[in-house]
Every structure is written in structure tokens, then in C-alpha cells.
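User: quick one, fold this
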Amino acid sequence: MTDQTFDHVVVGAGSAGCVIAQRLVQAGRSVLLLEAGPADDTPFVRMPATFVRVIGTERTWPYETEPQPAAAGRKLYVPQGRTLGGGSSVNAMVYIRGTRADYDGWAESGCTGWGWDQVLPVFKRAEANQRLSEPWHGTDGLLPVSDTPFRHPLSLAFVKAAQEVGLAYNDDFNGARQAGVGFYQTTTFNGERGSTAATYLAAVRRDPRLTVLTGAQALRVLIEGGQATGVAYRQHGAAEVSAYARSEVIVCAGALASPKLLMLSGIGPGEHLRALGIEVRRPLPSVGANFQDHLEVGVYGRAREPISLLGNDKGLRALRHGLQWSLFRTGLLTSNVVESGGFVDTLGDGRPDLQFHVLPTLVGDVDREPLPGHGITINPCFLRPRSRGTVRLRSSDPLAPILFDGGYLGEQADVDTLVRGVKLARSILRAPSLRRLVSEEIEPSPNEPLADEAIESYVRRRAKTVYHPVGTCRMGSDDRAVVDPQLRVHGIARLRVADASVMPTIVSGNTNAPTIMIAERCADFVLGGGV
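Assistant:
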């Protein structure tokens, strides 16, 4: 392929990249959208319940940390989307925005214009909610948000059991208050996943102003005279190609890949880049710093009867579920699996610090097989980690894996929050509604009570990420920020970053909806509207 020129080059066709491409093309701009992975053309992406079959395939990046001293010396695994739609094509589809305090905190930290009153209209503009409307929700956007059409008995039992231990029911985690338990709304429509590829990108896919390339690995941003002029990439291992942008280059590769691309382009910690033989185009020490993520740890219960999801993906049951979904878009395969959960204030300061993700089956992790048999997994997850990590280059080779230190559980406060979460999850597991379906706790222990020291040891041995990496290209107005409040990279003209990496602090909940909001705002900035 010969060199080409477009109005914009967008790197990464994930949750953010598809949104930005759609908005720019709709405004009359020509866009080249580069995606390193393959197309999203597998039924396991479209079927909500089968996302676990996509993780670990060619459609996800297999990121892993260095051994984490505070997490029992383990490597932790953070798979990320590597297909059209990115994370929105492989996640559990939970629609959560975070809280007013999250965004007002961004504004107070120097992200002018990113307070709750500024971002709420953007969330609403993007949203097409099936059930809810004003004052908190939108109904005419491109992002479908709906109630889970299938609700597993174990998921329902959790919601009831949590109320039995004193937690309030909440019908809308994105409404007047976040605290409480209930069923999540999801980014699904008509029984299918509503990824940004299936919604935003599909809306302009036939427009001649849009060029989408899959299997296209970005190698570096091209910089001349202190401004970005394009992107060098390689498609399917072929010769390097340069794509030029008349207007801007927008990096949307995610919190682990965006800092990598900036550093490969000479933007980042100067000493680190020089040590790898990379010419420093702009010294920005915070590129790759400020890494944050959500961690959770499982509390597992044994089901009295074989009612969990185990075995539904095999044999005649799998065939029946597949036919029901294919013919009617109903049944088990319309479930996002993480159907129920909630938010809890365990410190009593009026702001939830813990989230529950509940799965009606026994789950493991990328590096650990699930526990055998039928059961339920209750995952308490801390919302505002204090630990910080880093992303660095391992070498100047664009194809080399990153040097990734998550800094997980480095701060005792993070461990303490998970300990409180485990204690609460264990009490919910023993409440009447779950007791009727669950015979015993499997892990951390069937015994009651369990000392805090034992729970802490369990947390350090078992905690895993929820795949919500953020913060590595921090937004701000100070001289150590990577991008300014309009997402422009400090010191390099015509270059923006728009994905979860720009979050100065992680939001209190799942990160996909906030990433889409960030992309919507980036498009506004590029097109000249809003601040």
C-alpha cells in the first residue's frame, strides 16, 4: 500500500476510536482508522454471554505485569481488546458512568471543563436508553443501554440476599445515587452486544470518507517541526507505510498501548527513551506513569443444585441456546453474565468505595482454572485505588511487549478495602436467599469467622484485575500532565490522546462508558465545539 493522506489518522478502533471516527466522518472529514487486530466478525462477539470465549484469542492483547511483590509475587494479567470495537467488543457490557465526585475531582485537579455538570450532557447525548430518560439519561444516542433480558436465579438471589444484610435496592446506578444493589444495565440491544463498532462505526462504515484497516500495527507517530504529521504502520507484516494527516493525529490505543506508541515516537521520559536509542522529540516524564486499575477478589459458594452456567456451552444444551439466540435473540446467550452487583460505602463517608460483580458460575482467571462444580462468584472490587504503576518500553522494537509494573496492592489501603469487601461478601453468601441455593462457601474458607490476617493473605494471593487500566497519559493543566483539558499532547501540535489513559484518576465503576464520553468530547474539541 502506498502512502496516503487523510484529514485525520486515528490509531485504535476501540471504544474511543470508533466514536471519534464516526463523529469526524459525519462532519465531513476524511479519516483513516487503524486497528491492529482483526475484524469483529465472530458470533462470540455478538452474543453477549460468550465474551469469555473471545478473551485469550487473537482479539485480545495478552498484557502481563512484572511479578508484583505486594500480590504474593504473582504476575497479573490484563487482556485488552484487539479487534474492531476494542474493549467494547470483549467486555461484560456493564454500563456505569461513575459519580459526580469523580468528575468534579478531575476539574479540581486541573482538568478544566470536565466537572460533572459538563460531562453529564455528553453521557446523555451518547446514550439510547431502553427504559430510562430525563433527568439522568438520554434516549436518542448511538450507544444502546438496556436492562438484562435474562436474569439467572443465582443473580437474583444475590440481590435479595444483599438486601437481607442491610444494603438498599437501587434501580439505577447511574441516577440520583450510586449506592445499593440491583441489576446492571448493559450496552446491548435486541439481544446483541452494542459495541462501538456495531453502533458508531456501523453508522458510517459505507461512507467513502472512512478508511478502516485491520491488522494494521501503528509503529510510531510521525513528527516534523514539533507537530504530528501522520503515523507509520505495518499491515499484516508487510512493508512499513506512512499515512499523513492534514489536520490531526488522534491516539486511541488504550491505557497500555497509547503510552507505548508515544514513547516509540520520542514522547516520554527522556532518560528512558535515550537509554533505548530513541530520539527524544518531547520530554514528558509522566507518559506511562500514574497507572491505575480496579482489583477484585472472589468469594465462591457451592450451589446445592446444578443450576449455574457450568456446562451450558457444551453438547445439546449449547445447541439449544445457540438456536434460541439465532432465531429469536432470547434466552441465556442474551445475558452479560455479570447481571447483578452493586456499590457499597464500607467506610461510612457517604461515597461508595466498593463495587460487586456477581457471576452465576465459578470463575477463575487468565492463569487459573475455575473451581470445579456449580456455584456462584461474588467479586468485591475497590473503586478508588491508591496504588500506582508504570508502563515503560522493553525495547525500541514496536512489536516487543511493554515493561509493565502495575504497582498492584502497593498501598495498604487498597488491601484493607478488599478485606472489608470479602467480609461483606461472605455475609451476603450466608443470607437466607442465597442459603436456599448455596450449600457452603468454598473460598476463602467454609469456616466462620475468619481472621482479618487470613483474609488479607487470601486477597494478596487471589486478587485479580477487572481489566480497567487507566491514567498513563494523564490529563491536566500542570507541567507534568501528558495532555491538556482538550486532550492535546503538551508540546506536540496536532496530536491528541483520547481514551482511558487520559483519566487523571480512575472513575468509581466500569470504564467503558466514561471512555466513550471522553471520545465524544474529543470529537467536539477537534470540530471546534465545547471546551
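User: anything notable?
Assistant: The radius of gyration is 22 Å.
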